[in-house]
Amino acid sequence: MPITEVRKDPGTLTLTVIAEYPVPVRRVWDAYCDPRQLEKFWGPPEWPATFTRHDMTQGGRSDYRMTGPQGESSHGYWEFLLVEAPRRFEVIDGFAHPDGSPNVELPTTRMSVGFEPIGEGSRVTTVSTFNSLDELEELVRMGMEEGLRTAMAQIDAVVADLSSFAAGNAVQAQILGDTQVRTGRVIRGDLTDVWRAHHDPDIMKRWLLGPDGWTMPVCEVAVAVGERYRYEWENDAGNRFGFTGELLASSPPRRAVTTEILIGGEAPVTVNEMTLTPVDGGTLLVIVITYPSAEARDAILGTGMVDGMETSYSRLESLLPEITQTKSSGSLPTR
């Protein structure tokens, strides 16, 4: 059991949980950065968590739900007040309605999570600060203390798994619900270079191609919120297709949200949220895709979308050293 101390202090309105793990600090930090890993320990086994957004940067936000054994759900959110990788982060932790809006009828807490090395391992100290003694007692009655104990205990198995989330692994796709899919991959490259590779037309034309044999003759990038983008591909056989959409939100170099629709087709409009997070070994790229229905979700997944993404990301990884070398000049030679 990694938990070494649990301390409830009515005088300071705090609940402190301290746990120790036999792995470096960076490994534990990355488990919090990656929603695929965070879901494996945040919340008790009977109420597993699903993160539909996880933007771990100062001013960012996470949205999650916990699903009970009978299918019931409880929604929550984190608002990131401070992120100092890999030492600590602080969030406002609150309850939410199913649409993600804060449930102001229930209390919030300020949660600070600190990471420090101890010998060859690490110590994680989680301090939850409450607004009043009544709220502290209410949340403890609701199971918060036991929930934190369970979460800390489950991290052991997650951080011991070094291979499942390693840099360079193929794209993983997870169904988050009837209308959402999350894809994730660690790209072996710097955060700013990966962002640039998604927004520089000359670079995009060299990697965002899917299977071999395709080119990208049209690459019009949206830079400001409200602008539209247009991407088109063609092959030697004369086949051609493309996508267009609007940039809904952008926080360079971390997050971009766009709509997407097939040009000239009857495919549904999707909303794609891309989040980039620095982790050991590179940059974690996560895309949450929201479809209008489960049928639309399954139809698009059935096109081989994930395999095409992996082919493109593998190509991007091979290109990133060149992007890094040419960063100072601001140009990338075309081929």
Structure explained in plain terms:
This protein is α+β, with helices and mostly antiparallel strands. The protein has two domains: 3-160, Alpha-D-Glucose-1,6-Bisphosphate, Chain A, domain 4, CATH 3.30.530.20; 172-325, START domain (Alpha-D-Glucose-1,6-Bisphosphate, Chain A, domain 4), CATH 3.30.530.20. 24% of the residues lie in helices and 41% in strands. The chain is built from eight helices and 16 strands. It has helices spanning 25-33, 35-38, 133-141, 144-160, 191-197, 201-207, 294-301, 305-325, and strands at residues 3-9, 14-21, 49-54, 61-67, 73-84, 88-96, 109-118, 121-130, 172-177, 180-187, 214-220, 228-235, 240-251, 255-262, 270-279, 282-290. The protein has an eight-stranded antiparallel beta sheet. Strands 9-10-16-15-14-13-12-11 form an eight-stranded antiparallel beta sheet, sandwiched between helices. Strand 9 (172-177) and strand 10 (180-187) form a beta hairpin. The chain is globular.
